[in-house]
Amino acid sequence: MNEERYASRVRQALNHGLKDIPPASARRLEAARHLALSRQKQEVPRLALAGQHGHGHFHFSSDNRHLRQVLAVLALLLGMWISFYMDSLTYVSAIEEVDSALLSDDLPPEAFLDNDFFEWLKDDTSAE
After folding, report:
1. Buried b (16+ CB within 10 A) or exposed e, 59-89
2. How sure is the predictor about 103, in pLDDT bands with cuts at 50, 70 and 90?
């Protein structure tokens, strides 16, 4: 906040003295300003290893918002894929238990063709 106040005071002082500058000098100052801005190097956003800065992670420049968003989406997709994979393993495990229980039982094969038997199985599994 202190820097903003200082910058505001400097700007006011420069604006106050602006009317005392002759028009020819003002044009030369403006041309010099444009020349200086055209020669100013633009910083290229890049990834730097954190070891260069003494941290244990990657350092992103503030201009890499797009890269951050892509990495966030990739992390989200990876998390969703892991979640679906673990859920499918749980589902397959539950089906294996039911199949093993049915196959180890002493029911005749004709019982599996009976529609009432399937209704009984549905009612039995919904009660748990």
Report:
1. eeeeeeeeeeeeeeeeeeeeeeeeeeeeeee
2. confident
What are the extents of the domains in the chain?
1-38, 64-128
pTM score above 0.85: no
Q: Which residue has the tokens 């093993």?
A: 100
Give tens-digit pLDDT for 27-66. Answer: 888 888 788 778 876 665 566 555 555 455 555 555 688 8
73 or 118, higher pLDDT: 73
- Do 61 and 45 meet the contact criterion of CB atoms below 8 Å apart? yes
Residues with Cβ within 8 Å of 47's Cβ and at least 6 positions away in sequence, in order, are 58, 59, 60, 64, 67
